Hints:
Elements: E1 4-6, E2 51-53, H1 56-59, E3 90-92, H2 114-121, E4 125-131, H3 133-137, E5 140-147, H4 148-152, E6 159-165
Antiparallel strand pairs: 1-6, 2-3, 4-5, 5-6
Amino acid sequence: MDDENCHVVYSDTPESELKRVVKVKEHDTLFWAGALIEKISSESESMKDCYRKADEDELACYECEKDFRTCECNSCDNEYTADQVTEDGKIWDDVAGAKQSKMFGFFNHCQWSQEEVEEVIFSNKVVLVQFGEKGFTDTGVAMILIDNDALKKRDFNECKFYWSQT
C-alpha cells in the first residue's frame, strides 16, 4: 500500500473522560494483531536527522577503492555520486526515523529517493502519526499524513496512508 486515502477518527474529548469500550488483548506480534503502542512522541526533528555518516566502503571508488570524492577515476559504478555526499561526509539515510513511533516530525519513506521524500517534506503535508518498526511493526513503517490546512481545521476526512517496507 503506498498512497491510500484513509479516514482518521478524531475526538476532542478530554483524556480523563475517555473509556476503552472494547477488550484489547496485548500481543507480542505485529500491530495489526493487536499490539498496543507503548511509546509515541512528538520530539523536534531537523533535516540533519535525515542524514548519517557514510561508511568508508560507501565512499570507496569502485575502480581504485580510494575515496571517490578525491580520486580521478570518475567511475559510474560508485554507490554514491559527489552531489549525494555532504561536505562533512554524510549521506541520505533511507531509514532515518523508521524505528520510532511519532506524531508530526519528518516523513521518510524507506523505498523512495531523497528527492521524492523531500517533495513531501517541503509540501503542505504533515506527518499526523507514524507507527515505527521498533516493537510495533518490526518490518516497516506505517504513516498517516494530513494536509496542514486540514489539520488546522481538524478535518481528518482526507488523510493519506503510506506503508514503507524496511
